[in-house]
Amino acid sequence: MKNFLCFLAVFISLAMCDVFCAEKNPACTSGSNIFILQPLLDNAALGFICPSVNWSYSSYQLACQLDGRLVYITPNNNYVDNQLVKIKRNECFAEGGVYQYINKNGDLKTVRIVEIINKYL
Questions:
Q1: Label partner for 111 (CA 20 to 30 A): which of 18, 43, 64, 90?
Q2: What is the pTM of this model?
Q3: For residue range 47-91, what is the model confidence (pLDDT) as tens digits?
Q4: Cα distance between residue 81 and residue 100, in whole Å
């Protein structure tokens, strides 16, 4: 019984080390949710990376729109309008490059390109 408990303790320690000792990907940026503003024809989307919870707004989606960063999300999912995308614990957002588009007023706008990547190396 004593050997079994020692084995179990070592096994749990090694399993925890995989989670806590893994090196975090330096490309990761903050944020864990994204609110889709508009899906695009190439299966990508324009959306807001949501800030931490802000209780001064009536809804989380409104906080995302007013305080979030507008970004272009690379194609890897079928996005729909007003979708709240929650990434997994082992994933993160990584910025890389810029995307330009023309808004309704005819103005050229530039936003960061963001993709969802593995958080740990």
A1: 90
A2: 0.72
A3: 999 887 666 778 888 888 888 899 999 987 789 999 998 989 999
A4: 20
